[in-house]
Amino acid sequence: MARIEDTGLGIARTKDVMIVSVTTRPRTQEEKVMFYKLLCEYLEQRCGIAPSDVMVNFVSNTDDDWSFGNGEAQFLTGKLGGKPQINP
Questions:
Q1: Phi and psi dihedrals of 86, rounded to 5?
Q2: Can you name the CATH fold of 18-62?
C-alpha cells in the first residue's frame, strides 16, 4: 500500500487516496489541466471519491518507447502503426 506524504499544499486526504498514472503521447498544458479537472469530477460523481484524494501524473512517450512483447519495437518495425520507422 502506498503512503502519500503531505506535499506542503495542505490538502486533506482520506484512506481512499489514489494515484492515477497516465501513459500518453505528449499533451498540451491545457489538455492536462482539463483532464485533471474532468477526472476528479467523474470520480467524485460516479465513485464518491473526493477530488482531494486524487493525485495524477502523466508519463509522456512516443512510438519508440514501446515494446509489446518478444523483445521487438512493433511501432518502429511497422508491425503496428503502418510504415516501418527502422530496419529490423
A1: -140, 170
A2: Macrophage Migration Inhibitory Factor (3.30.429)
